[in-house]
Amino acid sequence: MIITVVGTGYVGLVSGVCLAEKGHNVICIDNNSEKVKSINNGISPIHEDGLDSLLKKHIGKNLVASDDLPAAIKKSDASLIAVGTPFDGNEIDLSYIKEVSKQIGECLKFQENYHVVVVKSTVVPGTSDEIVKPLLEQYSNKLAGVDFGLGMNPEFLREGVAILDFMNPDRIVLGGIDHKTHNLMENIYKPFGEVDTILTNNKTAEMIKYTSNSLLATMISFSNEIGNLCSSISEIDSKEVMLGVHLDKRISPIMEDGTRVSPEITTYLQAGCGFGGSCFPKDVEALISHGDRANNSMFLLKSVMEVNKKQPMKVIERLLKHYPNISGMNITVLGLAFKPGTDDMRQSPSIPIIKKIIDLGGLISAYDPVAENQAKQVFTNEHITYFKSLKDSIKSSEVIILLTSWPEFKSLPLLIKSLKKEPLVIDGRGMLTKGDIARYERLGS
After folding, report:
1. How many domains does the chain contain in total?
2. 84, 94 in Cβ contact below 8 A?
3. 121 in the same domain as 232
4. Distance between CA atoms of 290 and 294, rounded to whole angstroms?
5. Are residues 191 and 75 part of one domain?
6. Does some domain include residue 206?
7. What distance in Å separates the CA atoms of residue 218 and residue 228, rounded to the nearest whole number?
8. Which residue range(s) make up the domain with 272?
9. What digits encode the pLDDT tens for the residues 62-93?
């Protein structure tokens, strides 16, 4: 099939490259000529494991980037809308969705085949049917379900392992307005083999995405709230508490041969310094706002966000417990991105933590394997010394704060032993073992 992907951000480019890998012919559309040129030269504008190699493998063959939307739509069987939907504090900003819908509508005027428009951006329930559809019909002078199809296909990609997630989906959700739409979308995913697939309407597909992210965010905030309680009571370690919870066979099933399965979802049931990124904070806030507009206040989700907002300051509390005055103190922050495997700084817990330390007069040394350039765009006025290696970043540290669970940070206990003076380590992700470091603090204990 020939597929147009509108938007070459995180979702759009990953989707386009992976669909090319599955044998489709893909045209990635972006109005930024520099991004188009970069992609056509095999250079990805985002950091994602495995993306560069797949891009170079297919670009110029069955994958191309372009800024010519009409030409792309004309030769395509389907177009995927994968533009941004930022949250402005009250609701998601649909301006990009609306503009692309108008442009695709204009292109559909001259379309002879039954072209299917698929919304892949994360949008609140009703967006596809109540906003995208009327715009497509208005600007094409055609009818949805008669002259063209409209579907909704949410993504479930984790930053850092997005290529792996796309190529090996645990589920495929296909919303659509008619059988033709569903059939074409099923054909897009036919090369993926046997995967649990939900065929539903567009509103339900939209709601599945928000519900999925809200559940995971809730699990994190629940774990952090339990961890905070454990910290306030002596001789309780939330890591051990959560292990006891994980061993419930409804969470970690015991197989017939006696072996236990430890699902990856248990990683969301650990105390830490809070969630960030481009999805969880935005999506939960958007669903809260959507609920308020529907006169259905989302009390639980509001609490989820309140816990998460306060969680980074738990790191500062641990710091000030040991050093009430940190003015002039050398403090190393390990990890700037909101999670390992990505350079994404959006809503990262490192941001409020670093800003607070600087406000209190602390001197920041920072190290992240890939997020330094992104961090420099966030911290434009703050004085931060960036290091190119873990070893160099901790040489003069009085305190080390671990905020992102990059695998290389596991070597921290060994590196600390080579220092003249052992620093205090505050583990905001619970990735180190208590006892391996003499002066060690972990959230939740």
Report:
1. 3
2. no
3. no
4. 6
5. yes
6. no
7. 15
8. 212-309
9. 999 999 999 999 999 999 999 999 988 778 99
